[in-house]
Write a structure and sequence with these properties.
Number of helices: 10
Distance between the termini: 11 Å
CATH architecture: 4-Layer Sandwich
Helix content: 25-40%
Bound molecules: manganese (II) ion
Largest sheet: 5 strands, mixed
Strand order of the largest sheet: 4-5-6-8-7
Number of domains: 1
Oligomer: single chain
Radius of gyration: 18 Å
Shape: globular
Length: 267
């Protein structure tokens, strides 16, 4: 039971939709008309995938970086998790078109990134500062009894068995320069669908294992859009979908599929 906690909001998969992000944050009172933090002590966590599939991924990163500072100065908090698209962007940045062992498709990580919505503009504008921010992102956090992750996968368990261990292993993955290691990093971060068959809760099913291992009583994820993976019509995206016996909340509203960015209040 959390007493007098500051409001806690989450949003996922902005995917370069900078103007749409501004609008949902302004409508919730978290930013003013000029885009400056106005949320006082509120907390706002992003669940990754800032780039690709939309016009201004680097602009979204810049906005999240700026809001992080403004929120902290106001007594609030902006947190930002890592998504698979940031890993794919960094892989394209570091390895270009070098062949990836075991991949059939052409042009290596650069080609794979482009096929999954990578935008040349984002890669071209990626500075050392943006890259340093990306590689310092945590992959998961527990905030007020909510386990926040990007993807609906148990592949996080392959990184480690505590939040700190996972985040340290992800940082180590970014520091590696073995191309096979990066292919594995991309695979783990991009997996999906692990919680769909867990409607009857048990302590050892995929959801129970994640919550027992990392903490929290509800897992919140983005990555798998409500529009494509949860059967919500694009015009009817209004709130996250709770499933797996109420233990999981999916919040990727599919802004690049005709849906919208869902800013979801958890506390
Ligand atoms: Mn994703």
């Amino acid at each position: 039971m959390i007493v007098d906690a500051a409001p806690l909001f989450v949003a996922a998969d902005v995917h370069g939709h900078r103007a749409e992000l501004h609008d949902v944050l302004r409508d919730a009172g978290l930013v003013d008309a000029a885009g400056r933090w106005s949320g006082r002590d509120a907390r706002l966590w992003f669940l990754g995938d800032y780039v690709d599939r939309g016009p201004d991924g680097i602009g979204v990163i810049a906005d999240v970086q700026r809001l992080t500072g403004q929120a902290a100065a106001a007594g609030g908090e902006v947190g930002a998790l890592l998504g698979n698209h940031e890993v794919q962007l960094m892989a394209a940045h570091l390895f270009g078109t070098a062949p990836v062992p075991g991949w059939d498709e052409p042009d290596g990580f650069r080609g794979g990134w482009a096929r999954f919505g990578g935008r040349d503009d984002d890669l071209r504008r990626l500075t050392d500062t943006h890259a340093a921010w990306i590689v310092s992102r945590p992959a998961m956090a527990v905030v007020d009894d909510h386990l926040l992750v990007h993807s609906d996968t148990t592949a996080y368990l392959e990184f480690g068995e505590s939040v700190a261990a996972v985040n340290a292993a992800v940082a180590a993955s970014f520091a590696g320069r073995d191309i096979r290691g990066w292919a594995e990093f991309c695979r783990r971060m991009s997996a999906r669908g692990a919680f769909r068959d867990s409607e009857t809760a048990t302590p050892d099913d995929p959801v129970g294992t994640m919550l027992r291992t990392y903490g929290g009583s509800m897992l919140v994820h983005g990555h798998s859009t409500l529009t494509k993976y949860f059967g919500v019509a694009p015009g009817e995206v209004a709130e996250g979908v709770r499933y797996a016996g109420g233990r999981v909340l999916a919040i990727d509203g599919g802004v690049y599929e005709g849906g919208r960015i869902l800013l979801t209040r958890l506390v």
